[in-house]
Design brief:
735 residues; Methanol Dehydrogenase, Chain A; Cytochrome Bc1 Complex, Chain D, domain 2; 2 domains; 14 helices; 39 strands; EC 1.1.2.-; Cyt_c-like_dom; oxidoreductase activity, acting on CH-OH group of donors; heme; signal
Length: 735
């Protein structure tokens, strides 16, 4: 019955919103498809199913359903899938990008904001562009120097850089067309102004729209629209008010001054930290409504009582905001997490569908943000239609059936109670940046779901901002795990990862595919009734979209957190994905992240076809090997060293000094053996070019030495344990 509801017709609106209704055999498409690289790119994206061999925009279509009608590879033959080609990348951090494919050319953005143009049939490099992001920018962002993708428009490719630029390149040659700084030099942006850009730009009616991140440190969120041809700023929309309720000379002035400001305390840390609300991922243009939807992030600081004195809903944190693409004018908003204090961003993928609601077809937004609830919202008006938790949640008992407002668990409001809160979902959410997909053939939304708890505890002594570090308003001594096996076992038991196949009409789970742990890659659904997904343990899988059966598996040699794409090259279907373990989960959780499966970073693009014959080269998967440390350390300095490490270092090098397989494990660093060597790296920035900034303006010589003493202690405490864990044939840590 549900399947029939999605097959009634193929109106223009249906084409725009719901993707292809019926599967077709596409072997002959390459010969008859229109050239998507010529003429109006917007029209080509609207009519993406007329040239299904391309992947022209971040979610393939404006609806961002990540569904491709291609079906040469299907349930009957996917078991024969083989590696067709691979291209090794020149970075060894996390890869989160969605490659674009236009006219047989793949445009892949990689870590450190680099762009590669590859022959989509062979993987041959056609050109490369390195914007040369300075290494000291790495510590301005919370969660790795990743890049999630590019945009294509009228013969040019566009992408953001981690240091805040937006760049347009000639798609054929890779030559620079224009470059702009997206971060204004003036304005009320908070004292920290810790901005980065790692999300994919979107293009609506000739305007390139880009957001930014930085709320963990201190930032005020906004998006900017630039003319696609010239790079000239067209308009800007701020997502939280000016702290003095003054105009910013922006499209958002009226709604912020007259509506949003009243939902904030006139004082509080937000007035100095910026308030947050960064739009670091989802920006969607909907040609059906002619609106742009913004997914707005968390508050800065996280702590609601410190941020806004525990007052107001804090518009537009944790919201979807609809604006006009031509002017940036506000139209409507829906706030999913009022009074956010859990880092429950709404930046996760926004998707539009046509769904039968109460006997009528409605054009809707479906959304699975961090807070664990699946929302169905009218795309034109923002009216709440339905909502249900798609993962286990303990912070709310449900949603108000009329308004969609959360029904809070009073104990979850830890900033108001003053008591610690073990939250599920935690700050990484029930769903993060990993893309979900929809299949019109099954009527199901496939969500890369996860469970990663978090202990929320108020910062002792009130809010104090630290330069060059996270400023959450939390006790950094408590956000990590103690090195006690019972505490670790209890936490690990709560770590989960899976695909949930969600029925958006019934608001219930149809089936699930369990994984070993969280932090798995995004999903693409195809006309061959397949789901493709890479996993944190380095495996790439194809699942049956109708029941979740595992039909294909490939060892990709490194954790996969990016979403796959599928395309045609010379009439043949390929499936490709960026490989490379990274992001905040292994960065901050460190050794605990091993529970998803041991992996180290080997970054590359891999592509599969039914007749592939490539093989990956052998790799060293042992990672950073333990080195026996000096036996002596100053016990009196290690407690403060732990606090300083958790404040300044843990977000990259792992909770409690244990790394997660991406960046160096400092327990085994030669630098910790000598005070001067350690200070040269941490204080003076000897490794700045590699992303290790200098901290002499943030910490004293004594504080840096305290960190060294703490690391010496941790190295001694864990050395034998790490050696014993590697006593096996592979020489890698046993789980």
């Amino acid at each position: 019955m549900m399947r029939a509801a999605f097959r009634k017709g193929r109106s223009l609106r249906g084409t725009l919103a719901a993707g292809t209704i019926c599967a077709v055999t596409l072997c002959g498409y390459a010969a008859v498809a229109a050239d998507p690289g010529s003429g109006d790119t917007g029209e080509a994206i609207i009519h993406a199913d007329d040239h299904p061999g391309d992947w022209m925009t971040y979610g393939r279509t404006y609806s961002e359903q990540r569904y491709s009608p291609l079906d040469q590879i299907n349930r009957s033959n996917v078991g024969n899938l083989k590696l067709a080609w691979y291209y090794d990348l020149d970075t060894n951090r996390g890869q989160e990008g969605t490659p674009l494919v236009v006219n047989g050319v793949m445009y892949a953005t990689t870590n450190w904001s680099k762009m590669k143009a590859l022959d989509a049939a062979t993987g041959k490099l056609l050109w490369a562009y390195d914007p040369r992001v300075p290494g000291n920018i790495a510590d301005k962002g919370c969660c790795d120097t990743v890049n999630r993708g590019a945009a294509y428009w009228n013969g040019k490719v566009y992408f953001g850089t981690f240091d805040g630029r937006l760049i347009a390149l000639d798609a054929k040659t890779g030559k620079l067309v224009w470059s702009v700084n997206t971060i204004p030099t003036g304005g009320a942006l908070g004292n920290q102004r810790s901005y980065t850009v790692d999300g994919a730009p979107r293009i609506a009616r000739g305007r390139v729209i880009i957001g930014n991140g930085g709320s963990e440190f201190g930032a005020r969120g906004f998006v900017s629209a630039f003319d696609a041809e010239t790079g000239k700023l067209d308009w800007r929309f701020f997502t939280v008010p000016n702290p003095e309720n003054k105009p910013d000379n922006a499209a958002s002035d009226s709604v912020l001054m007259n509506k949003a400001y009243q939902t904030w305390s006139p004082t509080g840390a937000w007035t100095k930290q910026g308030g947050g609300g960064t739009v670091w991922d989802s920006i969607v243009y909907d040609p059906v409504t002619d609106l742009v939807y913004l997914g707005v992030g968390n508050g800065s600081p996280w702590n609601y009582k410190f941020r806004s004195e525990g007052k107001g809903d804090n518009f537009f944190l944790g919201s979807i905001v609809a604006i006009k693409p031509d002017t940036g004018e506000y139209v409507w908003h829906f706030q999913e997490t009022p009074m956010d204090q859990w880092d429950f961003t709404s930046v996760q993928q926004i998707m539009t569908l046509d769904l039968p609601i109460n006997g009528q077809m409605r054009h809707v937004i479906v959304h699975a943000p961090k807070n664990g609830f699946f929302y169905v919202i009218d795309a034109k008006t923002g009216e709440f239609l339905s909502g249900k938790n798609y993962v286990y949640v303990n912070w709310a008992s449900g949603l108000d059936p009329k308004t969609g407002r959360p029904l809070y668990n009073p104990e979850a409001l830890y900033t108001m109670t003053g008591k610690d809160w073990y939250g599920i979902p935690g700050d990484l959410g029930g769903h993060n940046f990993a893309a979900m997909a929809f299949s019109p053939r099954t009527g199901l939304v496939y969500i890369p779901a996860q469970q990663v708890p978090f202990l929320y505890s108020n910062q002792v002594g009130g809010f104090k901002a630290h330069p060059d570090s996270w400023n959450l308003g939390l006790d950094m001594n408590k956000v990590g795990l103690p090195d006690k096996q019972d505490a670790k076992d209890a936490f690990i038991k709560d770590l989960k990862g899976w695909i949930v196949a969600w029925d958006p009409i019934k608001q219930q789970e149809a089936f699930r595919v369990d994984h070993k742990g969280p932090w798995n890659g995004g999903i693409v659904a195809t006309g061959g009734d397949l789901l493709f997904q890479g996993l944190a343990n380095g495996e790439f899988h194809a699942y049956d979209a109708t029941n979740g059966n595992d039909l294909f598996s490939f060892a990709a040699q490194s954790g996969i957190i990016a979403p796959p794409v599928t395309y045609l090259a010379n009439g043949k279907q390929y499936v490709a994905v960026e490989v490379g373990w990274g992001g905040i989960y292994p960065f901050f959780l460190g050794g605990i992240a091993r529970t998803s499966g041991w992996t180290v970073n080997h970054s590359r693009v891999v592509a599969f076809s039914l007749d592939g014959n490539a093989k990956l080269p052998p790799q060293n998967d042992k990672g950073y090997l333990p080195v026996k440390p000096p036996a002596e350390f100053d016990e009196k300095r290690t407690d403060n060293g732990y606090f300083e490490f958790q404040t300044y270092c843990a977000a990259c090098h792992g909770d409690n000094g244990e790394a997660g397989g991406v960046l160096p494990d400092l327990r085994w660093s030669g630098a910790i053996r000598h005070q001067d060597a350690f200070y040269n790296v941490v204080g003076r920035g000897a490794l700045t070019a590699y992303g290790m900034d200098r901290f002499d303006s943030s910490m004293s010589h004594e504080q840096i030495e305290d960190i060294r003493q703490f690391l010496l202690k941790r190295a001694n405490e864990t050395y034998q344990r790490e050696v014993d864990a590697r006593k096996n044939a592979e020489g890698i840590p046993a789980q």
